[in-house]
Amino acid sequence: MKFFKTAWKNIRRSPYQAFAAIFIMTLTFLAFSLFAIIFYGSSEVVSYFESKPQVTAFFKDEAKEEEIDSLKNSLTESGIVSGTKFVSKEEALKIYRDQNKDDPLLLDLVTADILPASLEISTFVIDDLTLVSDTLQKSEIVEEVVFQKDVVSTLTSWTSAIRKIGVFVVVLLAVVSVFIMVIIIGIKVSQKRGDIETMRLIGAGSWYVRMPFIIEGVIYGLFGAVVGWLISYGILLYATPKLSYFLKGVPVFPLSPSFMFSLLGVEVLFALILGTFSSYFAVLRYLKK
Question: Does the global pTM surpass 0.85?
């Protein structure tokens, strides 16, 4: 308990240095939180599209039911298809009417005979959609294949890019945090050299001298983690209505509180490690004995 009191006294006596340490830690954990949220959200979007029919084959009017069943079975037996859904002409008309119920003129112009039957296919892995699309295009009973290849490819590449950028930014900020913490703790050690020499003369051990500085670094890390997490949570709550509207139909937002509190737990653990390492390295460097 005495070590915590000493650490807190050191913080209060140098508020500007404490603010600088907490500020850089806050930036580090804010970036960590935001990229974790973005990566989690983008992964959920990819998972959603992986679980939904992504390739739609529209059949020719002369396509027979046996031929459609044969094509569906061959796709299912391939082992890459997670599900198929056949949409008849009558079902297509019902979907069309639901989508255009506010425009009576469009409803009068379309009948079931005009709309083609279709087959919607989803795969276990999003990369297999291209293979399914190529197979369908070779079928003689298929009139058209709708496959948003560019959208799927872009979504996958963006997720990969976000992961790489996020790791780079967080690691960079963590390294900067360590250097700044080492400098700040080092300055404080230098300012207290007289007190430290006195403590050693009366028999204080190395760990007794070092512990308040290490605890001070841990406090900076914990404050930064909590403040960074709170700011990111506030940004998330503010942006959730807009993101939900933008991702209409994709059940990603709002994120569950359990995810956010799990993220806080990870950040607190990371803060303990980062704060301890930074301050320990500083006292190890400036307190040789």
Answer: no
